[in-house]
Amino acid sequence: MVDLRFVAPDLRRLDEAGSEVVVCGVWKDERPLTGLACLLDWRLAGRLSRLAKQGFLVGDLGEVLVLPARPRLPFDKLLACGLGPRASFGEATFRTVLERILDALTGLSVKKAVIELPGRGDSGVEPEQAASILLDVLRDDERDALCFVEELDAQRRIEKHAQERDRTALRAQGMAAR
Questions:
Q1: Cβ neighbours of residue 138 closer than 8 Å, sequence gap 6 or more
Q2: In whole numbers, what is the pLDDT of the chain averaged over residues?
Q3: What is the number of structural domains in the chain?
Q4: Taking the CB of residue 64, how many other CB atoms lie within 10 A of it?
Q5: How many Cβ atoms from other residues are within 10 Å of residue 69's Cβ?
Q6: Are strands 21-27 and 145-149 parallel, antiparallel or unpaired?
Q7: pLDDT per position as a tens digit, 62-113
Q8: Which of 19, 73, 95, 133 makes the best surface tag, with the fewest CB within 10 Å?
Q9: CATH number at residue 27
């Protein structure tokens, strides 16, 4: 079972998260920025918005921009990940971006990260869908701590889905053992 940890999308709560990296998503075709990117942009005095306006941060699917986050944020680095166009976002895109995020964290040797699940900052994918894909992708992940940015209701829905999935897997193992 994967240990799911959460933090509310609130700057004070994020300040207390104690991670090396914070990860947010950026849509290619939505400005101003939304979700966690919007909160982080505010704390960074509009730096992400300026990079988007200059065409340096586009939001293309697969794009990962790494920026220093200190001293305005309590993280060493910020990863802004492209989500592509909002209208074409779905489960396959969610999985692609999540895998890209985890690959980037591995490449940076990051063990502790706060992650906004792709598209979840503004409900691009339902919590249960996100949980199913997340649990598949994290099955063999060996990081010390990944903490996901979610509102309380979504946290509960994701945790419930994960518990139901674990119970189903245990039942299937029990039947196979007979």
A1: 2, 102, 146
A2: 91
A3: 1
A4: 17
A5: 20
A6: unpaired
A7: 999 999 999 999 999 999 999 999 999 999 999 999 999 999 999 999 989 9
A8: 95
A9: 3.40.220.10
In SS3 terms, the chain reads as CCCCEEECCCHHHHHCCCCCEEEEEEECCCCCCCHHHHHHHHHCCCHHHHHHHCCCCCCCCCCEEEEECCCCCCCCEEEEEEEECHHHCCHHHHHHHHHHHHHHHHHCCCCEEEECCCCHHHCCCCHHHHHHHHHHHHCCCCCCEEEEECCHHHHHHHHHHHHHHHHHHHHHHHHHHC
d(CA 97, CA 141): 16
pTM as predicted: 0.91
Structure tokens of 44?
């960074």
Provide the domain limits for residue 15: 5-177
Q: Which residue has the tokens 């996901």?
A: 148
